[in-house]
Design goal:
The chain has helices at 13-26, 31-49, 69-78, 107-118, and strands at 53-63, 84-91, 96-106, 123-132. By secondary structure, the protein is of the alpha+beta class. The structure holds nickel (II) ion (NI).
Length: 138
């Protein structure tokens, strides 16, 4: 467990007013908690920029009636076993399937897989949620 350190921050009062308004809206109890989250957010962003080992989820929806699409998406995932930790398939309604693919690996490989899944013809929407393995942000 890291030791807690206090430090002073100087900034324009107009900026602090805006910051306080924002953190109140987001539900933070204290400035410290909001600042910790902001710092972690930037550290996670940097992990992705520096192509470190990261984690995340790729979420997409598609119409399973489209010929060959389900197997094409499955083939693609079988080719990325090193990156994929788990896949959840949800039958949303008669036509639409939702897939949530949990990933862990090199940022560039995760990004590549997300791009590949999203760009398959018939995938109606896809999103990559970029987070961290948690090791570097404690
Ligand atoms: Ni389905």
């Amino acid at each position: 467990m890291s030791e807690l350190v206090r430090f002073g921050v100087s900034l324009e009062d107009s900026l602090l007013i805006k910051f306080d308004r924002l953190i109140k809206k987001r539900g933070y109890a204290t400035r410290s908690e909001a600042l910790r989250d902001l710092i972690r957010q930037e550290l996670v962003k940097n992990e992705w920029e520096e192509d470190q080992e990261v984690a995340g989820t790729i979420t997409f929806i598609y119409d399973h009636h489209r010929r060959g699409l389900s197997s094409q998406l499955t083939d693609l995932q079988h080719g990325h076993q090193d990156t994929i930790i788990s896949t959840q398939h949800i039958h949303l309604d008669h036509h639409n399937c939702l897939e949530i693919v949990a990933v862990k690996g090199k940022a560039s490989e995760v990004q590549e897989l997300a791009d590949a899944l999203r760009s398959v013809k018939g995938v109606r929407h896809g999103a990559l949620s970029m987070t961290s393995t948690g090791k570097e942000i404690a």
